[in-house]
Amino acid sequence: MEINGEQVNEIVNYADLGLSPEVMKAIDKKGYVQATPVQAGAIPYFMQWKDVIAKAPTGTGKTFAFGIPMVEHIDPEREEVQALVLAPTRELAVQIQEELRDLCEFKEGVRTVCLYGGAPIDKQINTLKKRPQIVVATPGRLMDHMKRRTV
Fold this sequence. Notes:
Distance between the termini: 35 Å
Helix content: 40-55%
Strand order of the largest sheet: 2-1-5
CATH architecture of the largest domain: 3-Layer(aba) Sandwich
Oligomer: single chain
Number of strands: 8
């Protein structure tokens, strides 16, 4: 796996990454102890607000690699969208949103929404009215919401 052009193979415990008690509680609830190499390589960069280019195969934990720092950086007091994840398919968008929702479980006031085609747009609009800070969306449905000025 590569992070910013460098090979990463190190395995680190989540407890050694300086994460908040709330996120650690969510990770512990999933039964995870060790970060995967892509997570161990990417999370420290993201926590410092640095850009990351990661190259890793499917199933290596890329969602947590960007999701953990994303959740850590969300300010629950602010009600505007603070993070956007674009996914090419509705299945991947739903999967990412479920992982992020699990990470947010103990972060009071942090809300997520998943926007994708093939689902009732009215329900999505109602969810957006609850002012989620994290939006996971497919490009087409995001554009629909932008045209409607609902996001």
